[in-house]
Amino acid sequence: MGYVDFVGPVHTATKRDYVQRVVAHDKAECAEVAGRFGADYWDGERKYGFGGYRYDGRWRPVAEAMVRHYGLTPGARILDVGCGKGFLLYEFTQVLPGIEVAGIDISDYAIANAKAEVLPRLAVGDASRLPWADDSFDLVYSINTLHNLRNFDLHASLAEIQRVGLGPKHVTIESYRNEREKANLLYWQLTCRAFLMPAEWEFAFGQAGYDGDYGCIYFE
Predict the structure, then answer these.
(1) What domain count does the chain have?
(2) What are the tens digits of pLDDT across the range 14-24?
(3) Which distant-in-sequence residues (6+ apart) come within 8 Å of 60 by Cβ?
């Protein structure tokens, strides 16, 4: 297991007013709406989530970095657990032609509104019950998804990622290293369920038998 930060530059490109997130709206009501992962979360008002999640190329450097780091070659099979609208999977197909991609997400809306080029390779489903055989993929990754799960589903999802991955695996999750980052995470998040420090995440990985890499998003 190694710590690899692929997503940091994407995360830090957005400026956040943590306190405003709490005081400007009914945070509990916003979280309830966001937790449905429907149109409001993806393409509604910012208070409910992304405020409009549209393709803008921001994930291309992430795909390039992952291809380099894991030495992926044409013909490799990649699975995105929590793929959303499939933007990162699309970037993989552009960075490395000949790659095979698949994605799964709990959100019917995200899949229905996914990037057209990869839509046929995406499915609505649960991360804790992946519909693929053992050792099906050369790379399995999950970015900004697993912290949204309750501990029992988190455990099962990590075990599933381990099961279907023949090659390297990577997860990126929200975390905190100190009280300030914890407060900021609590202020900003809408869907997070697993509030864990890095050492706690490593414990969860070990309990589930997950031996892949991970990276953390911090709210500094």
Answers:
(1) 1
(2) 999 999 999 99
(3) 91, 94, 95
Residues facing 100 on adjacent strands: 77
Tokens read off for 135: 């050792």
Please name which of 131, 118, 139 lies closest in space to residue 76, comparing C-alpha atoms.
Answer: 139
Encode burial over 175-210: b for 16+ CB neighbours within 10 A, e otherwise: bbeeeebbebbbbbbbbbebebebeebeebbeebeb
Which residues neighbour 190 within 8 Å (Cβ) at sequence distance 6 or greater? 30, 31, 34, 35, 41, 48, 49
**Per the domain annotation, does 51 fall within a domain?**
yes
Q: For residues 80 and 138, is the Cβ–Cβ distance under 8 A?
A: no
Give a yes or no: residue 158 inside a domain: yes
The rounded distance, in Å, linking the Cα atoms of 74 and 144 is 26
Residue 3 within a domain: no
Query: Is residue 134 classed exposed, middle or buried when 0-12, 13-18 and 19+ CB atoms within 10 A define those classes?
Result: exposed
Q: Which two tokens stand for residue 149?
A: 């799960």
Let me know if residue 1 belongs to a domain. Answer: no
- Name the residue range of residue 17's domain: 8-217
pLDDT digits (tens, 9 = 90+) for 110-155: 999 999 999 999 999 999 999 999 999 999 999 999 999 999 999 9
Give the tens place of pLDDT for each residue, 53-70: 999 999 999 999 999 999
The CATH number assigned to the domain holding 137 equals 3.40.50.150
